[in-house]
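HUMAN: Spend a minute on the protein record below and explain its fold to me.
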Amino acid sequence: MEKKTPIEELALLFSKGNDELKLEACNEILSLSGTEAMIDEFLKVYHIINPELVRLMRLKNDLSLKAGSVLVNLSSHTVGSRSLVGVECASHYQCPNDSMSHVRSSHSVGSRSLVECASHHPCLRDSVRSSLVQCCVENICDCNSKLADVCCMILSNISRDPSCLEVLKGEFNGEILEKFMKVLFEENFNKSGCNLDYLAHFLANFAQDTVLRSYIIGQGKKFKKYFLETLHSVELLGLENKCRKQGLLALYRNLSLSKDSHGLFLDGPVVQLFTSALFALVNSIKYDNANHIEECKKSMDPELCILVLDTLLIFCATKRGRIILRESDVYIALKEVHSTSSDKAIEIATEKIVDILIRTEDEIGVNDYLDLEIPEHLVQKFRKYDLEDAEEIEGSKIKLK
C-alpha cells in the first residue's frame, strides 16, 4: 500500500473524523493554507476536503465559520477557485475518484469541459458548486448570519477568474442579484457584526459579463444614488474602509461599460465627486522642493485612485462624456495629479485621459467609441501597449524598493 503524505493524512482525518477531530483538522488546514505553496499542496486533496468543507458550512454550527475560512484561503488561489467551481479537474494533479484512477477522456457539457476519471463520473460534481453557491446566497441574504462575510469573500474569490465566471453564470439569476443589490444598499443590514464589504467585489466581478451586468443595471439608479450618498470626496481615496470603497468603485466602473447605461452613470455629481477626490489627493501631498521628496499629510491609496481614473477613461468613450469632462475642473485636477504624484501607474492612467481630452472633437472624429469595431491587429497592438505599461509600472516599483 502506498504511503500517504502528511497532507493526505490530514485530509482523511478531516473528512472521516468526529466533530472534535474536524475542528482540530480545520484549524491545522487554516494555519497551513496562508501561503500559495501550501495551498498548492492542499489542492492535491481537494476532492477529499472540498465537499466536506461545503457540507460543514451548511450546518451553521461552530465548525461552519472555520470551514468557510478555509474555503476563503483555498479559493484565493486560481487553481483552487477553479477546482471548487468545477471548471477543471486541477489537471496537474491526479484524478481524484480513487488513488489508482487516471484521466481517460473529456467531453463538453454546455460551455465547459469536464474531465472524467476511470469510473466515467465527473471529477468535480456540479452539486458541490451548487451547494456552495446556495449556502453563500442564503447566508448573505440572512440578516442574522454570522457567515455572511465569509460567504462574500468566497463568492468574490471564485468569480475573479473568467473561466469560473462562465460556469457560475448558471447558478445566478436576476432575482438573486437584485437581492444582493438590496442588501448592499441597506445600511447595517447584517445584525451579527458582518460588514459585507466583499459583496461589492463579487458584484463588480459579475458586472464584467455583459448578460450578468444587465441584471445589475436594473438597480442602476438606486446604486448611483447609494454611491453618491455613501462616498465622500475627501475620504474617497483614503485608506479608511479601503475594501468597501474598492468594491464600490470597481462596480461603478464596470457598470459604466455598457452603452445602454453609460449615460446613466456619467453625470455631473459623479464627475464632481471624482474631481474633488483627485484634488484631495493632490492636497494630501506636500512637496519638499529643497530635498526633492514628497511628504504625505494623509495616506491616500493609489489603487483607489486608479479605479477613479479608469472610470473617467470610460467616460471619455462618448462625445457627451468628453464634453462634460472638459467643462468640469477634472482636467485641471488630472494635470495636478500628474505633476504631483510619483506613482507610475497613476502617471500613465492620467496621461491616457489627458491625451483624449486635449484633442478637439474634429480631431477625434468619433462620437462613440463604444460603437467602434476595432480590427484585430489593432486589438493586439493595444494589448502590447498595455503589457508595456504594466511592465513599466512593475519596473518603477522595483526601483522604489
Q: What stands out?
A: Residues 90-121, 396-401 have pLDDT under 50 and may be disordered.
